[in-house]
Amino acid sequence: MVRIDLKPLKSGPHEFDREPEPESLGLDPAVFSDIRLHVRLDVQPENVFVRLTASGVATLICDRTLVPYDEPVAGDFAMLYVLGSGTEPRDESLDDVIELAPEEEEIDLTEAVRDTLLLALPHRRVAPGADALELPLQYGAPADDEVVDPRWDALRNLRTDDGAL
């Protein structure tokens, strides 16, 4: 889990570097490794603005060759946490604003870090050099002793000399 304790922080900018384990973020350790997190907080009496950069290495399966390869991934995230009154209902229409209850003393960034890394994964997963490989377009050769369905011969007889039907 990635939690930032707000109690000891005074107004102004604060920076943190963390290296969370994939399991603590709810990520598969067989896929994600070497996760690094840089968090910048701008603390004010009524709000906290959070900017984070998450990076790591993802072990992916190449879409072309089906061979595993390592892909560096990185992403950014920003969110505004505002101190709520605790009496009014939270405005759910604001996606980039999270209301903190007056008694909350820490910010949990676990979900934000996990989502940032998952969204940083490429849609098309191609290993380095896999684009240059030639892919076979036909598999297997017809055997000489293979019995050909006679209906194919009847269809071939419908063709004219120029190959048109």
**In what order do the strands lie side by side in the largest sheet?**
2-3-4-5-6
Number of strands: 7
Uncertain regions: pLDDT < 50 for 5+ in a row?
Answer: none
What is the CA–CA distance across the termini?
A: 68 Å
User: What is the overall number of helices?
Assistant: 2
Please state the CA-atom Rg, rounded to the nearest Å. 28 Å
DSSP helix fraction: 10-25%
Number of domains: 1
Structural class determined from secondary elements: mainly beta
The whole-number mean of residue pLDDT values reads 84
What shape does the CA trace take?
elongated
Largest sheet: 5 strands, mixed
Order of SSEs? EEEEEEEHH
Strand content: 35-45%
Task: Summarize the structure in words.
There is one protein chain. The chain is mainly beta. The protein has one domain (3-130). 10% of the residues lie in helices and 36% in strands. The strands form 2 sheets. A 5-stranded mixed sheet has the order 2-3-4-5-6. The longest helix is centred in the C-terminal third of the chain and has 10 residues, at 110-119. The protein starts with a strand and ends in a 9-residue tail after the last helix. The mean pLDDT is 84.
Concise synopsis of the structure shown:
By secondary structure, the chain is mostly beta strands. It has two helices and seven strands; from the N terminus they run βββββββαα.
